[in-house]
Amino acid sequence: MFVSFRISRTVLAVCTAVAVLICTGVAFAVNASAVDASAAPTDVPAGSIKLPVLMYHSMLKEQKRLGKYVISPDEFEGDLHYLKENGYQTVNVQDLIQYVKIGTPLPAKPIMLTFDDGYYNNYTYAYPLAKKYGAKIIIAPVGSYTDQFSKKDSGHPSYSYLTWDQITEMMSSGLVEFQNHSYNLHTTKGRLGAQKCWGEDFQAYKDILQNDVGKMQTELELNTGFRPTAFVYPFGAVSDCSDSILREMGFQATFTCLEKMNYITRDPDCLFSLGCFLRPSGISSEAYFRKIGLVSN
């Protein structure tokens, strides 16, 4: 009896793993922590501008809640202070687009600070610090979460998400830019984020992606007057055809979770599949930036 149960659990585990692989495909790049970010690339375009993109998520004060996807306000302020002291200047997606399209100059040492998912604590802790340091940040909320918490249960740093009023307020500051993180594709049930499942019909996938991402475009535009120009892949799950579909929809940039340095040129293609360095808790600003190659010694 006991042996039979163990075999059943093993078979179930194998079947589950196979199912996940089928629906993730071969282009999934969620965890690229093994990438040596400080290694010198061999194919840097001539005349390109080095652009590190930092990826944050939630922000809380409670020490016991900190981890890979949750940092403290003090850690974030440490990052902002370090970057300012070392001559980095924050940019957003519109700055990149203006450089690529018409040559509007970028800072000598640009850096991008992004926040995935749209947690309410970004408003509580990150936004005041951005104002204190005059730093531009980018937040990519999930539309269904914002709709839900705009109706009820908002205002809890530990679990709430941004409301439309908070998004509008932050956007009016000129420091916070909002981009598209899907309306309701931030899930691992049945489909991994916005990724095409293995064997899925292309037109069916295209319809799903366009309908969901298009709904978020419409909601952001209706609530803020701004139509996002970039798509941030949930979990970094990207397929070979997804960028081309998003281009058709008018997007001018996409972000993955691949930990790599970006090199910006006047070629519009350079703004697709941008890499992001995840910023975890538990490491000092100086040590973290050295780890991802922003400190030379």
Inertia-based shape:
globular
Largest sheet properties: 6 strands, parallel
Helix content: 25-40%
Main structural class: alpha/beta
Total of DSSP H or I helical runs spanning 4+ residues: 9
Number of strands: 12
Q: What is the H-and-E element order?
A: HEEEEHEHEHEHHEHEHEEEH
Quote the distance from N terminus to C terminus.
61 Å
Uncertain stretches of 5 or more adjacent residues: 1-36
Radius of gyration (Å): 20 Å
Q: Oligomeric state of the chains?
A: single chain
- Strand proportion: 5-15%
Taking all residues together, what is the mean pLDDT?
A: 89
Protein described:
By secondary structure, this protein is an alpha/beta fold. It has helices at residues 2-24, 73-85, 93-102, 120-133, 143-151, 164-172, 202-224, 242-248, 285-291, and strands at residues 49-51, 53-56, 58-59, 70-71, 89-90, 110-117, 137-141, 176-178, 230-232, 253-255, 262-264, 277-278. The strands form four sheets. Strands 2, 5, 6, 7, 8 and 12 form a six-stranded parallel beta sheet that branches. A two-stranded antiparallel sheet has the order 1-11. Strands 3-4 form a two-stranded parallel ribbon. It is globular. It starts with a helix and ends in a 6-residue tail after the last helix.
